[in-house]
Design brief:
Helices cover 37% and strands 13% of the residues. It is an alpha+beta fold. The chain is flat and about 45 Å long.
């Protein structure tokens, strides 16, 4: 198994997420990424390598233009609407 890990995982630290209709501390957090990496490494499941950056053209081959336009402005738009908390997807 190829394991992809980057120090940039530490930047992913939301305040809350929804679980069974209740706001709870996020399950996905830097400490969890470190625990998963340690377990995978200890099990010897494969080499650990860093993440790669891809040109926009490669991303556009996989995702719809409308979705990419949405993502490009989502955080800015969230703040323009007066929100200061985490932008949490919900369906």
């Amino acid at each position: 198994m190829q394991i992809i890990y980057s120090d940039r995982h530490r930047a992913h630290q939301g305040r809350v997420e929804h679980f069974h209709g209740t706001a709870v501390p996020c399950f996905e957090k830097p400490e969890r990424a470190e625990m998963v990496l340690a377990a995978l490494t200890a099990a010897g499941l494969g080499p650990v390598s860093g993440s790669e950056s891809f040109p926009l053209a490669a991303i556009e081959r996989v995702h719809a233009p409308r979705y990419l336009r949405f993502l490009k402005r989502a955080w800015q738009r969230w703040h323009e609407l007066g929100h200061d908390g985490d932008a949490i997807p919900d369906v």
